[in-house]
(rape) hypothetical protein
Amino acid sequence: MASFRILRSGDSGNLEASIDRLLNEEKQMRLAENVAGTRKAATEILQLCFEAKDWKLLNEQILNLSKKRGQLKQAVQSMVQQAMQYIDQTPDIETRIELIKTLNNVSAGKIYVEIERARLTRKLAKIKEDQGQIAEAADLMQEVAVETFGAMAKTEKIAFILEQVRLCLDRQDYVRAQILSRKINPRVFDADTKKDKKKPKEGENIVEEAPADIPTLLELKRIYYELMIRYYSHNNEYLEICRSYKSIYDIPSVKETPEQWIPILRKICWFLVLAPHDPMQSSLLNATLEDKNLTEIPDFKMLLKQVVTMEVIQWTALWNKYKGEFENEKSMVGGSLGDKAGEDLKLRIIEHNILVVSKYYSRITLKRLAELLCLSIEEAEKYLSEMVVSKALIAKIDRPSGIVCFQIAKDSNEILNSWAVNLEKLLDLVEKSCHQIHKETMVHKAVLRS
């Protein structure tokens, strides 16, 4: 093996002869099952081709060496790893793609180079994306299931899956994006990275270190929730968007910088107001009001207090006050609040006002309800009916007389207790009736005897 350096330096004019000698050396080492020798001979051949800038010959030698009978796994792994270093030094895109495809063919179906194959696929997908072929790039990435790779670093796995999700969102494949996003458990971002890594026990997979270009776990957390915001924005799921922004807001690096957390806290406030009223929304609303940072943006604190307070909100006055802030969101982090956000904001204020009215009135005329809501009678009836259908409140409308009757929602225990009380009253009435009948019968019999 000492002759390799001499061949590379002194016989550069005769590349084929040098490669033939190295192939003979490689064969001898391979048949002797000499791992170090086979690996060295194979990598020397690739280095010769690279230095000669003969990319076609390089691809041929990679395929040739990988198909040798009884080729050692370590030799194939070393060849793939070394050839990957040449990818960024290729003269043009066509040569780069050809080299990546060659390495993909060699690593296909080989578990000992599965990580290298995943990295190659990602490089190829990036090239396709740069060429504008987003659908092809997404299809390429979906072929690789990195969640099954035991030796791949956790951060690299997450980064790969997030890339899959991003490409699906770019091609507007929202169903597949949701399926892929579920492969990541959000709790993984809360893991303590400062803990000492345990040494693998005998028989366990040795986890490789993630490449230098892979983001940290907290950076990946932000990327994950930004992608989830894009997904939820498609269906205007305001509460889920709000929860995603809340998770970004809780990242330590974000909370330390007012320039970062103020725009995010504004978004949280807006989406809390836009979200339909339910227990989760109410809980988040109260938790956000207790946040001390909210004092930095007093207008938004006032907005949340208005929504929490059980008082009728005048839509015109509210819109005139916050219209400017609403429009300013387009130039801030995350962009605009959505195409339907303005309409939905008005709808939430109407729903809030109907809930307020239902707290103070048990019966009210439709005309008076419409006056309180600043709507026509037809619109008031429409919004009230929608809330009843969605089970946001319980109400009945007497249309001939134009009266709305509100009822307090009862839980199952209260309903069962009322039934029990009614049954008890019924049994008491039956018992009294039987006693009276028996009494009248006895009196009637006494009269007949006399």
